[in-house]
Amino acid sequence: MKLIKTKDNSFTFFNEEFQEHYHSISGALEEANKKFIEPLELKDGMTILDICFGLGYNTLAAIEKYKNLKIIALENDPKILEELQRIELKGKFEIIKKLTKEKYYKDENYEITLILGDAKETIKQVKDKVDIVFLDPFSPKKNPELWTKEFFSDIYSIMKKESKLATYSCAGQVRRNLKEVGFKIKDGPCVGRRAPSTIAIKK
Ligand SMILES: C[S@@+](CC[C@H](N)C(=O)[O-])C[C@H]1O[C@@H](n2cnc3c(N)ncnc32)[C@H](O)[C@@H]1O
C-alpha cells in the first residue's frame, strides 16, 4: 500500500480498492484531533467506540490526551493492521502497534479491544454502553453499508443518553439517516475543506 506523508508530517495510506486515502492529506493526525477529539469534548474515564479503526489515529489521539479510557475498536481489514507497523510516530503509537498484533491491550490507564470483522456484524458483540463514537468509514459513495439507517440504529442503541458521535461527512443523506434514528445534528468543524463535519447527539 502506498505510504503518503500528509501536511502535518503524519503518514497515511492510499487504498487502491476504495480509491481513497485513509485520512485527509491536509494532515492525518490533525484530522483525528480536530474532527473527532476536540468537538466530542472527551473526558477521562469515558468508554469509546472507534468504528473503522484503520491506522488507529482516532484511538491514538484519544489516549494521547485522556486517561482511564475503555475503547472498543472495529475494523475488517487485517492488511491495514499489518501495514501500520511500517509507520513511526512519537508518543503512544507503540500501544496501537501492540494492540493490532494482539487485538487487546490493557495497562493502568487503558483497556482497548480491537474486534476484527464487518462492523455491521461485530457491533452486535459490543456489550458496553458508550459515551463517544468515532464513525470513520470510507465515503458514503464507496462504503455505503456503514452509512445506513440500520447501522446508525445499531450504534444509537449502544450509546448512553446525551452521548455524542462524530463523523467527517456532512452529506444530506447521511444527516437524514442519523436524524431518522433519533440523533440531533450539529455542524462540526471544517478541517482541510470548506464543508463542516457532523456531530450527532443521542437525545
Ligand atoms: C477512512 S479509513 C479509517 C481511518 C481510521 N479511522 C484511522 O484513524 O486511521 C476507513 C476504514 O474502514 C474500514 N472498513 C471499511 N468497511 C468496513 C466494514 N464493513 N467493517 C469494518 N471496517 C470497515 C477500512 O478497512 C478502513 O480501515
Question: Could you explain how this protein is built, in words?
Answer:
This protein is of the alpha/beta class. The protein has one domain (29-202): Vaccinia Virus protein VP39 (Rossmann fold). The chain contains 7 helices and 11 strands. The protein has helices spanning 28-40, 57-65, 78-83, 93-102, 119-122, 149-157, 172-180, and strands at 2-5, 11-15, 20-21, 47-51, 69-75, 104-106, 110-116, 130-135, 159-167, 183-187, 198-202. The strands form 2 sheets. It has an 8-stranded mixed β-sheet with strand order 6-7-5-4-8-9-11-10, sandwiched between helices. Strands 1-2-3 form a 3-stranded antiparallel β-sheet, with no helix packed on it. α1 crosses α2. The radius of gyration is 16 Å and the shape is globular. The N and C termini lie far apart (41 Å). The mean pLDDT is 96. Bound molecules: S-adenosylmethionine. S-adenosylmethionine (SAM) binds next to α2, β5 and α5.
Features:
203 residues; alpha/beta; Rossmann fold; eight-stranded mixed sheet; three-stranded antiparallel sheet; 7 helices; globular; binds S-adenosylmethionine
Layout: helices, strands, pairs:
Layout: E1 2-5, E2 11-15, E3 20-21, H1 28-40, E4 47-51, H2 57-65, E5 69-75, H3 78-83, H4 93-102, E6 104-106, E7 110-116, H5 119-122, E8 130-135, H6 149-157, E9 159-167, H7 172-180, E10 183-187, E11 198-202
Parallel strand pairs: 4-5, 4-8, 5-7, 8-9
Antiparallel strand pairs: 1-2, 2-3, 6-7, 9-11, 10-11
Helix pairs in contact: 1-2
The chain binds S-adenosylmethionine.
